[in-house]
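Cast an eye over my tokenised protein here and flag anything odd:

===
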Amino acid sequence: MTELSAPSLEHRAPEPDSWVWQLQNTLRTARELDHALSLTPAERAAAERAEQEGFPLAVTPHYLSLVDRSDPNCPIRRQVVPAPAEGNPGRGDLRDPLGEEAHEVAPDLVQRYPDRALLLVSDRCAVYCRFCTRSRMVGAGGGPRSVQRLGPALDYLRAHPEVRDVIVSGGDPLTMKTERLTAILRALRDIPSVETIRLATRVPVALPQRITLELVQALREFHPIWIMTHFNHPRELCPASRAALARLSDHGFPVMNQAVLLRGVNDDPATLTELFRGLVRERVRPYYLLQMDPVRGTSHLRTSVQKGIDIMEALQGRLSGIALPKLIMDTPGGFGKIPLGPDYVLERGGGRTKVRTPRGVIVEYFDPEE
């Protein structure tokens, strides 16, 4: 099978528990989306535009099953159905918001930090999220990379032992055939200086059927591997996704979640509280809440920075520490991540710091005397 091959509209075998069936039956055209969801006229026009000239369409049958078909404001629907605003660039929008092209040190290898690098092994995803940071490249037709194509990137890693952590991303590495993915991981493990491998994937959300016993057993050979996944809304924590997360944890894979703060999807404390508590119940650590990157044509999904700070203040002290992620901005231009948050320090000087607690109580802290 060719990974993420185009679906046929006829004779679709009813095998929804198969990840291959899910990919073969993924919706990829405006007509298919309209048939499934009865799109509004504005959505239909936006989907037709995206199909012809914009960022590609892809929604798996599984992810489609989470969509409220009668509500255009459904938080799942907003993540995957094109909106008319995609054609309207906003202030500060960037084609490559994280400056990845400027930091490409070898083909398919990006290094923005001294000790870690990003290896892009595919341009394909199970679902194309409308807020994707790499909308400039994903779905562009290159498909999964072979070890041979990644040769220059692997040579760079061998020559730079300061790189200890490799994030394998794309596209989504878990949409690849197992043998192709394990060949890449084996090549990375053959580099002694690579200590940790992270797999950045939305498969547990969009294609949980992919987390098979065969896959996790094949990946265990390459531990330590961390799974960096991407749940944005509590509705995504459906039974199939919870089963996928349990299988990963049961086979020794630490799972971390990087949610994106999205307008009209999860930009309120109650929704995020439900999401973060739900993740912890599934042994997933809420790692980052990301201020959305200023990707071209996505301003309708972004919130203000202050909105995220206000949400974090509402959660601080009311949500267990293991359920509370960091609010992070990945600074435009590729200059690195910075934490954001409410300022609890009111005064500082003379060995004394005055702070405001989440309960609003003013407290003084005294530094030890020299």
